[in-house]
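Can you give me the bound-state structure? Components:
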Amino acid sequence: MSDVTFPSRVSVREVGPRDGLQNEDPVPADAKVELIDALGRTGLRRIEAVSFVHPKAIPQMADADEVWSRVRRSPDIRYSALVPNVRGAERALAAGFTELEVVVSASDTHNRRNINRSTAESLADLPELASLVHSAGGTLQLIVSTAWGCPYEGDVPVSRVLSVVSSGARAGVDSLAYGDTTGMATPPRVTRLVEETRAAHPSLPLGLHFHNTRGTGLANVYAALQLGVDDFDASVGGLGGCPYAPGASGNIATEELVYLLEDMGIDTGVDLPALIEVAGLAERLVGRKLDSQVLRAGPAVR
Amino acid sequence: MSDVTFPSRVSVREVGPRDGLQNEDPVPADAKVELIDALGRTGLRRIEAVSFVHPKAIPQMADADEVWSRVRRSPDIRYSALVPNVRGAERALAAGFTELEVVVSASDTHNRRNINRSTAESLADLPELASLVHSAGGTLQLIVSTAWGCPYEGDVPVSRVLSVVSSGARAGVDSLAYGDTTGMATPPRVTRLVEETRAAHPSLPLGLHFHNTRGTGLANVYAALQLGVDDFDASVGGLGGCPYAPGASGNIATEELVYLLEDMGIDTGVDLPALIEVAGLAERLVGRKLDSQVLRAGPAVR
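Here's the bound-state model for the whole set.
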C-alpha cells in the first residue's frame, strides 16, 4: 500500500447547518446563524447552509430565508442550498444561492418517503431543474442518497445507482455526490461504486457523503482517498444522527475527518482546534452530547 | 484498489472483560463471569479474560482468580491473561492460564506511569518471563503499547517501537501485538509500522489493538487488512474508554469490527446479532451508554 498516492488537498463541505440540524430538535434561527458564522471562521471553504423544502415536511428548515439573510457571508466561502424539486430551486435562486444540490434516492421506497415521489418522477424533473439553475448562472449537484443501502429495501444495486447518475448526466448536472444514508457502506462497496461511476462518467466531479451509523465512516473515506477522491461532506460535531437508527450517528464528524486528513498530510485549510471549538458550540446549541470522538479527545498530542 | 487481496478469515480477540472493564467503574465478579460466559456463546474463539496486576494499581482486576475459577470454560475458546511482570505471570500460570500477554510501553513515560518501571526495566525481565511461561507449556505475547503515540510524549518514533520488538524477539516471545493506546494512529502510520515490523521480523505473528479515541479505529483496521493482517483485538460494546480523554472511546467495538469484516466477506466465526445482544448486556453491567454504533443501529438491512 505504500505506493498509493493520496490527494494533496481535500475539499470539505460542511453540512452541519443543513443535514445536521435537519435531524435534531428544532433550534432557533439565531442559533443557526451563529453556527454558520462560526464555521466560516475555521477555514472551511464550503458550507451547506440551508434547504428549501416544504415547511410541513421539514419544520427544522422553515426559516431558511431568514437564516440565510442574516448570515455574515464571507467572499471566501461557497455556500450551498439543498432543494427537493423545481419549487425549492426557485426559492433558493430567489434567495441568492448559486450553488444548489438536488437530492434523489436511488431506492424508490426511500424517495417516496423522503419527498413523496418516485425516483423516476424526481429524475423527470432534472432537465428543467438544471436548465433553471444554469440560466440563473448557478450550478446544480445531483446528490444520490441511499447509494449504499436503503432503510426499507436493504442493499441497493450498483446498477440502480448508476442509472440515476446517467439520468443526471443527461440532464446536465454539474457534479455528483453519493450519500450513504443508512451508514451501510463499507470500503469494498465504496471502491466498487466509485470505480464503476468513474468508468461510466469520467468527467463528472464526484463527492462522497458518509454516515458513521455503523462506525465505518472514516474507513470509507480512507478507501475513497486511495482512489483519489478529494471531496467529502461532514457535519461539525457529527450533528444530526440517523432517523432510521435512534441514538446512532449520522454524518461523519467534520473534526474527525479533518483530524484524519491532516494527520495524513492532506491539506484541508481547516484550523482543527478552532473547528473543535465550534463542535462544542454545536453541542451547546442542540443541547445533547454529540458523538464526535475528536470533540472529546482533542487533537493528537504531538 | 480492486486488486488487493484481503485475508479470508480474521481471528478476533475479545478484550472487553479485561481491557474494557479495567477502564470502567468496578463491577462485581458475578458480572464479569456473566460477560465472559455470554461472549463465549457468540462464536468468538479468543477472549482476554483477566489481568494479574497489583490490586492496588488496578482494583478492577483484584478478583481475577475468583472470576477465572467461575468461568464456564469452553474447550473451543482460547482464554488469555495479561501480566505486567514475572510475579503476574506466576499467578496467571498458577491459575491455569497457558496463553499470557505481557505489556510494555514503547514510550518510557507511559511505562513508568502504567507499571512504575522504565521500558528498559520491563524489557530486561522478558527473557525470564518467556522462559517461565515456556517451561510451563504456555505461550507469551508481547503487547507493545503506545505504539502510535504516547499521552505524555506525543509521537513515538517507529525506531523506538522496533527496538522494543527486537528485545522481545531476542527473549523468545511467541507473538506480538501493537496497541494504539491513545487512538492517535491513522492508516498511513499503521501501514508504515506494519511494513517495517514485517521487514525486520517476518516470522513473528502480529496482531493489532486499535482504539477509536479519535474515530479512526476501523480505518486503521482496513489499512491493516490491505496488508494481510488477520488478527485484531476489540472490546464488546466498545467497553472501556480512554483514561487520557474522558468521554472518548477506548477499544474499537467488537460488533463494529465484526460488522466491517463480515460485510467484506471476511469470516470471523462470530454471530453478529448474538454479539450485539452481549454488547447490550455489557452496557447494562457497567450502567452507562456505550459508544458502539452497531449496538445502536444493528446489522445492516439486507
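A couple of observations. The mean pLDDT of chain A is 96. Chain A touches chain B through 58 residues (CB under 8 Å).
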